[in-house]
Amino acid sequence: MLITPVQIRFSDIDCFGHVNNSVYWSYFDVGRMDYLHRLFSDDFELRDETVILVHAEADYKVQTRLKDAISVRTGVTGVGERSIKMQQEIVNTKTGAVHVSSHSVLSGFSKATQKSIPIKPEWKNSIERFEQRKA
């Protein structure tokens, strides 16, 4: 799993004094983009053939406060013919507590045709090398 530090901004905090549930999705985006850039290149999302987010779900476990130090852990749990399954967690870097966990699905996508495409073998190979296991 890749660990990406995240800075909590004052504007992320709601009237209850914790990170608003909608903000976690931007944290997951930061971790997902960091993962994809490290594996494929800094312009991966700009290419014609890329991946897009098609499903995401989250479980909120512990409130996150402004002064908490957090990071996003991101990893791939499986690669199918046209999809990549990803797991992410927002983790308190001091206590190790998982504040939020997420499972998502990315689909291979062509911007030119606006349709799903198969996951390229080189993408799968890069994931397997990074994860150090079969995907």
Distance between the termini: 13 Å
Helix content: 10-25%
Shape: elongated
Low-confidence stretches: none
Q: What is the third-level CATH name, the topology?
A: Thiol Ester Dehydrase, Chain A
User: What fraction strand?
Assistant: 35-45%
> What is the tally of helical segments?
2
Structural class: alpha+beta
| CATH top level label | Alpha Beta
Q: What do you see in this structure?
A:
- By secondary structure, this protein is an alpha+beta fold.
- It has one domain (2-131): Hotdog Thioesterase (Thiol Ester Dehydrase, Chain A).
- The chain has helices at 24-40, 121-131; strands at residues 2-6, 49-60, 70-79, 83-92, 98-110, 115-116.
- Strands 1, 2, 3, 4, 5 and 6 form a 6-stranded antiparallel β-sheet that branches.
- Strand 3 and strand 4 form a beta hairpin.
- It is elongated, with a radius of gyration of 16 Å.
- The two termini are 13 Å apart.
- 24% of the residues are buried.
- The mean pLDDT is 95.
Summarize this, please?
This protein has 135 residues and is α+β, with helices and mostly antiparallel strands. 21% of the residues lie in helices and 39% in strands. Strands 1, 2, 3, 4, 5 and 6 form a six-stranded antiparallel β-sheet that branches.
